[in-house]
């Protein structure tokens, strides 16, 4: 069915297979989620400032402060700051 080329052992095929496997292994790696760059750090810092303003203006237990707390937690979770407080 496949002919003679797939039934014989060839160093070219082995080398090509190893190279292809290495490229696939290295190509699928992702970046570290906690170090997504300065843009995301600024977003989190901005959200912390907004939370502080809401606490000062409306009180610690206000709905606005609670909303900003949840928004800050969501941003931290999305950016990879899981179970770590900065």
Describe the protein.
The chain is mainly α. It has one domain (11-78). The protein is 63% helix and 0% strand. It is built from three helices and no strands. It has helices spanning 11-27, 38-58, 63-78. Helix 2 (38-58) packs antiparallel against helix 3. The protein is rod-shaped. The model has no long low-confidence stretch (mean pLDDT 78).
List the helices and strands and how they pair.
Layout: H1 11-27, H2 38-58, H3 63-78
Helix pairs in contact: 2-3
Number of helices: 3
Number of domains: 1
Element pattern in H and E: HHH
- The rounded distance between the terminal residues' Cα atoms is 62 Å
pLDDT < 50 runs, ≥5 residues: none
Mean pLDDT: 78
Structural class by SSE content = mainly alpha
Question: What labels would you give this structure?
Answer:
mainly alpha, single chain, 86 residues
TL;DR?
By secondary structure, this protein is mainly α.
